[in-house]
Specification:
The chain is an alpha/beta fold. Helix content is 28%, strand content 26%. Bound molecules: zinc ion (2 copies). The site of one zinc ion has 7 residues, from helix 2.
Length: 342
């Protein structure tokens, strides 16, 4: 089978042996694999302590072609499924520890990630698969990470008592994650203030259903003047400046939800203890989501409430070029590899 492999930072398409499904695993023939910003960070070695990996890709749609022992409880041959769960923790979790039982399997000690979906075939733990209705097309592959990560972050608003109807800022609203968050938060009934840069991107944010779209340079002034601050900020920015904007846009007692993971070279979030005392924000991080979150998101997509904005498709051999384009910000929304055969 063909698979993309990374060598010294360059993507090559190679012939690899066909993988065989192990215990409780399903062999998937991949029909579409999304290009996530974290694939780019991993390819470039952007994150402290994580070396560049030989294989990449963690959001895909495909067909179950074979089952390993025990996998028949969770999937059938011929099922059309979405896989990935945001990469982190989608490959295995124990199901019995305090984290698994409280709905946070990504903190499970035995958790395994998913990586390597830029390939014709891929084996995955069948328990993490979610079946897709025909109405959700192959171009929705980025729901597996980008969509799920945005969904998980919006759900945290409810958990922290930020109620529908309240103003919520989405920082990085036109991006690969942010464009989902605008749609999902709007579907939940929040008043979404989308923040991004450039008129084209702001127009895109308005088209997604945002209550208001503002440029990053004016955002703080507009949010404070018109709304007296937001109840929550969802920060998808790859720049630390976006994190600081998210903090400053909050009204007192607001909720700060960090979702983006800027390169380590961007430095740290800064908050003075006095500012902390005065404004009393709640600071949390939200990463990916659970199988149940994925099922709920698939329902929203099937109902037409959430759509992946895919403006770049290509073959496996174009992956390196697509990484360059993603880094340069030359397309809006997401890219999807739809031909994995060359
Ligand atoms: Zn566990
Ligand atoms: Zn991802």
């Amino acid at each position: 089978m063909k698979a993309a492999q990374l060598e010294d930072g360059v993507v090559h398409v190679r012939d690899l042996p066909m993988p065989e499904p192990g215990v409780e695993e399903a062999l998937i023939r991949i029909s579409a694999s999304g290009v996530c910003h974290s694939d780019l960070h991993l390819a470039r070695g952007d994150w402290m302590g994580i070396p560049p990996l030989p294989t990449l890709g963690h959001e895909a749609i495909g067909i179950v072609e074979a089952l390993g022992p025990g996998a028949e409880r969770f999937a059938q041959v011929g099922d059309r499924v979405i896989l990935g769960l945001g990469g982190t923790g989608g490959g295995y979790w124990c199901g019995a520890c305090e984290y698994c039982l409280s709905g946070q399997p990504r903190h499970c000690k035995e958790t395994k990630g998913i990586i390597g979906t830029f390939a014709e075939h891929f084996c995955v733990w069948a328990r993490s698969l979610v079946k897709l209705p025909d109405s959700v097309g192959d171009q929705e592959a980025p729901l597996a990470c980008g969509g799920l990560t945005a969904y998980g972050a919006v759900k945290k608003l409810l958990k922290h008592h930020v109620l529908p109807g309240r103003p919520v800022a989405v920082i990085g609203a036109a991006g690969g994650l942010g464009h989902y968050a605008v749609q999902i938060a709007s579907a939940f009934g929040y008043k979404v203030i989308g923040v991004d840069v450039g008129e084209e991107r702001l127009e895109f944010v308005r088209s997604l259903g945002a209550h208001m779209a503002v440029g990053a340079d004016d955002a703080l002034e507009v949010i404070q003047r018109d709304l007296g601050g937001v109840d929550a900020s969802l920060v998808f920015s790859a720049k630390i400046a976006g994190f600081h904007l998210g903090l400053k846009a909050l009204r007192r007692g607001g909720l700060f939800v960090a979702v983006g993971l800027p390169p380590s070279s961007e430095g740290n979030i800064e908050i003075s203890p006095f500012e902390f005392f005065l404004n009393d924000p709640t600071l949390i991080f939200s990463a990916v989501g659970t199988v149940q979150d994925m099922r709920e998101l698939v329902e929203l997509a099937a109902a037409g409430r959430v759509k992946s904005h895919v403006s770049r498709v290509g073959a496996l051999s174009e992956l390196g070029t697509i990484f360059d384009e993603l880094q340069a910000g030359s397309y809006l929304g997401r890219a999807v590899i739809t031909d994995l055969s060359h």
